[in-house]
Design goal:
The protein is α+β, with helices and mostly antiparallel strands and 231 residues long. The chain contains five helices and four strands, in the order ααββααββα. Strands 1, 2, 3 and 4 form a four-stranded antiparallel beta sheet that branches. It is elongated and about 85 Å long.
């Protein structure tokens, strides 16, 4: 029960910790991705540092599956496509592939790091104001609006970057990947880039709801001002 006696203060400490954790994660990830993974790939070529990028769909030829029983026609069943996870060796010696991987993942990682830091900072400051007894203030209104804008902007940026990453890897695979007989790529590669605490759809919906709540927040501020003037 003591955990909930000072909920704003506990949340302020939590968001402060998450903000520091975001910086540490950003430093370790960027350092490992830029420096250590390529070096380890050269020093330890037998080790593979794979990352899962997303799903890829392959079209199969109509005759890739047939019925052996004599009770049906050979074309009674057909295999339209195959789906699976696309994995890449981040420490690959292929400069073109490594460049595509960096151009696909690096911008999305930066968006996650920046938006997570800004989001945790805004929530930490908001909890600090609530802990001090400051509820209906203009500064809190701006912080709540900032939280909504961060969620909406990050969701839209992640959606654009996901399309961009899919285009980059799809063009690379169509040009460089060698498939077996009867297989071809079906559309673009569906990437699952890092999106931060919330998915793209969830972040967009929650962000819009938070922006809508700012109107109610402003109304509460107006009522508080009128009440103070009446007293």
């Amino acid at each position: 029960m003591k955990l909930f006696t000072n909920l704003p203060g506990n949340l302020r400490a939590l968001f402060g910790f998450l903000r520091i954790l975001t910086l540490l994660t950003a430093f370790s990830w960027l350092t490992g991705a830029i420096f250590f993974s390529p070096l380890l790939g050269r020093w330890l070529p037998e080790r593979n540092f794979h990352i899962t990028l997303g799903d890829v769909a392959l079209k199969a030829s109509p005759d890739s599956i047939r019925l052996k029983a004599d009770t049906g026609n050979a074309d009674s069943l057909s295999l339209h496509d195959l789906r699976g996870s696309l994995r890449a060796n981040f420490s690959t010696r292929s400069e073109s592939l490594q460049a595509r991987l960096m151009m696909s993942i690096f911008p999305a990682a930066l968006v996650v790091i920046i938006t997570s830091y800004l989001l945790f900072t805004a929530l930490r400051n908001l909890c600090a104001h609530l802990e001090a007894g400051q509820v209906f203030t203009e500064e809190n209104l701006l912080l709540v609006r900032r939280v909504g804008l961060i969620l909406v902007v990050s969701s839209l940026a992640n959606a654009v970057l996901s399309v961009w990453a899919s285009f980059l890897m799809s063009t690379y695979l169509h040009a460089q990947a060698v498939l077996g007989n009867g297989l071809e790529f079906a559309g673009q590669v569906a990437f699952e880039l890092p999106t931060g605490p919330l998915s793209i759809q969830t972040g967009l919906i929650v962000g819009c709801l938070v922006l809508m709540l700012t109107a109610a927040f402003r109304q509460g501020m107006k009522l508080k001002t009128e009440n103070d003037l009446t007293v």
